[in-house]
Amino acid sequence: MDQNEALALLKPHLKQERYDHTVRVMETALELANRYGVDEKKAELAAIFHDYAKYRPLEEMKKWITSTYLPKDLLHYHHELWHGPVGALLVEKEIGITDVEILDSIHYHTTGRTHMTQLDKVIFLADYIEPGRKFPGIDEVREAAQVSLDYGCWMATKNTIGFLMSKNQPIYPDTFYAYNALTKAKN
Ligand code: DGI
Ligand code: FE
Ligand code: FE
Ligand code: FE
To answer: Does 167 reside within a domain?
Structure first.
C-alpha cells in the first residue's frame, strides 16, 4: 500500500485537525526512521494509521475490548488509552494490515510498553514531537530525540508521567514499564 492510498483510506475516519496531525506524525516518523535505521515503509504505514480509532464511539471501543483478546484492565483507565489497542485491531480487520510490528506500534503508541521495538519507539516519539505539539517540556523531548531513540522516548515517558501526576491522574502500568525499561536502555 503506498502513502497516498493509505492516507485516502484513513481520511474519512478523522476530523481535519487530526488528519493534519497524522500527516505531521508521518513526516516526523519518516525522519526518525531514516536517522535511526528503522524500516521507513513500516514507519510510514504505522504513523498513518496510529490514530485510526480516535473517533470511534466509546461504546464501540468498550465492546471491542470486552469481546476480544484486548486487555480488560483498559476499561479501568481513561478512555483516551483505548484508541491505540482498538485501532490496532480495526486496522487489521478493516484495512487488512497484518504486519505484527506495525499493529503493535499502533497498539502501544500512547503508553509505550516494556521492550519497545525500534518501530514502537519511532511511532511513540513521532506522535509526541510532531511540529504541531505545544505542551510544556516539548523542547527538551525534541532535543533528546536528536540524541537517540531511547533517550527521546525516555524523556517523553518521563514528561507524560510527570504531567499525569501533576493532574492527579492514574497512570497505566505500560507507561511505567516503558519508563523503567528506557531508564536502563538510555545509559
Ligand atoms: O492520540 P494523540 O492525542 O495524538 O496522542 P496519544 O495517543 O499519545 O494520547 C495522549 C493522551 O493520552 C494524553 O492526554 C495523555 C494520555 N496518556 C498517556 N499515557 C497515559 C495517559 N493517560 C492516562 N490516564 N494514563 C496514562 O498512562
Ligand atoms: Fe493517539
Ligand atoms: Fe503519544
Ligand atoms: Fe496521534
So the answer is: no
67 within some domain: yes
Nearest CA to ligand 1 atom 7: 110
Give the 3-state secondary structure of residue 108: coil
Domain residue limits at 71: 3-134
**In the 8-state DSSP scheme, what is residue 123?**
H
Q: Which residue has the least CA distance to atom 5 on ligand 1?
A: 110
Check pocket membership of 2 for ligand 1, CB cut-off 6 A: no
Which pLDDT band, with edges at 50, 70 and 90, does 186 fall under? confident
* Domain total of the chain: 1
Cell of 151: 533517550
Cα of 111 vs centre of ligand 1, distance in Å, is 7
Render pLDDT for 69-106 as a digit per residue (tens, 0 to 9).
Answer: 999 999 999 999 999 999 999 999 999 999 999 999 99
Q: From ligand 3's centre to the CA of 159, what distance in Å? A: 11
* Prediction ipTM score: 0.89
